[in-house]
From TrEMBL:
The lineage of its organism: Eukaryota, Fungi, Dikarya, Ascomycota, Pezizomycotina. It is found in: Nucleus. This is Matrin-type domain-containing protein. One of its GO terms (molecular function) is zinc ion binding. Signal peptide: none annotated. Its main location: nucleus. It comes from Massarina eburnea CBS 473.64.
C-alpha cells in the first residue's frame, strides 16, 4: 500500500489513509490470504456463469473476478451464512456436501456404482390348479450382490420406458439389485392378480443369493368384471 504522495504528507513520510484506501487494502489482504488457503475447485458454492462472472450460490451474490469472490468468502455475510447452513444440516442430520460444486451444491447426488453385469435368471410357466390362472415364476441369481441389498421388482407400462417404441400390448417386469445391471422381462399387457399373497409374491434367499418371484395373471372374466361391485372372483 502506498503511504507516500498523499495530500498533506511530507516526502518519505506516511500520511493518514482515507477510508476508501483502507478498505481497498483490507480487501487485497483478504484476497491474498484466501488465495493461499482456499481451492476454488473444491468450493461447493463457487460457480462461473455463462457471462464469465462468478457467483456465490450460498449468498446469491455476483462477482466480476475470482479475487472479488475470495474477498467475499472472508466477509461477514458469507461466514454468517456458512454458520447457518452448518447449523441447519446438523439439525436435519445431513452430511456436508463435500465434492459438490455449482448447481449441485446443497442437493443430494446419487453415487454412481460400477455395474458387474446381468444376474442369471430362469423363467418357468405356472398354472394355478384351483383358479386355472396362468402365470410366471422367476428365479434370479445374485451371487455378488452388495451386502444389505435386497432385489426389488416393479411392473412398468410400455409408456414409462424409453428403450423401445411404446406398444400398449406389452408391459415390463423390472428387477434391480446393486451392483448388477437392472434387467427387464417383456410380458403381455395383462392385469396381474395382486389380491392374494399366494398369487403375487417374492422372496430372497440370502444364503444362496437367489431371488424368487411369482405372478399370476387375472382370467379374462376377472379382467372384464373386476370393476363390477358385488361380483365374486371367478373360480
Amino acid at each position: 500500500m502506498d503511504y507516500q504522495n498523499r495530500a498533506g504528507s511530507k516526502f518519505g513520510g506516511g500520511g493518514v489513509a482515507s477510508s476508501s484506501a483502507t478498505n481497498a487494502d483490507r480487501r487485497e489482504r483478504l484476497r491474498k490470504l484466501a488465495l493461499e488457503t482456499i481451492d476454488l475447485d473444491k468450493d461447493p458454492y463457487f460457480f462461473k456463469n455463462h457471462v464469465g462472472s462468478f457467483e456465490c450460490r450460498l449468498c446469491l451474490t455476483v462477482h466480476q473476478n475470482d479475487g472479488s469472490y475470495l474477498a467475499h468468502t472472508q466477509g461477514r455475510k458469507h461466514q454468517t451464512n456458512l454458520a447457518r447452513r452448518a447449523a441447519k444440516e446438523q439439525r436435519e442430520g445431513k452430511k456436508d456436501d463435500v465434492g459438490q460444486t455449482g448447481l449441485l451444491a446443497g442437493t443430494q447426488v446419487k453415487k454412481s456404482q460400477i455395474k458387474i453385469g446381468r444376474p442369471g435368471y430362469r423363467i418357468t410357466k405356472v398354472r394355478d390348479p384351483v383358479t386355472h390362472q396362468n402365470g410366471l415364476l422367476f428365479q434370479f441369481q445374485f451371487p455378488d450382490i452388495a451386502p444389505g441389498i435386497v432385489p426389488r421388482v416393479r411392473v412398468m407400462s410400455a409408456y414409462e420406458q424409453t428403450v423401445e417404441d411404446p406398444d400398449p400390448n406389452y408391459q415390463y417386469f423390472i428387477v434391480a439389485g446393486e451392483p448388477y445391471e437392472t434387467i427387464a422381462v417383456k410380458l403381455q399387457a395383462r392385469e396381474i392378480d395382486r389380491n392374494d399373497d399366494s398369487k403375487f409374491w417374492q422372496w430372497f434367499d440370502e444364503d444362496n443369493k437367489e431371488f424368487w418371484c411369482q405372478l399370476l395373471f387375472k382370467t379374462e372374466r376377472d379382467q372384464r368384471f373386476s370393476a363390477v361391485p358385488g361380483l365374486a372372483p371367478g373360480k
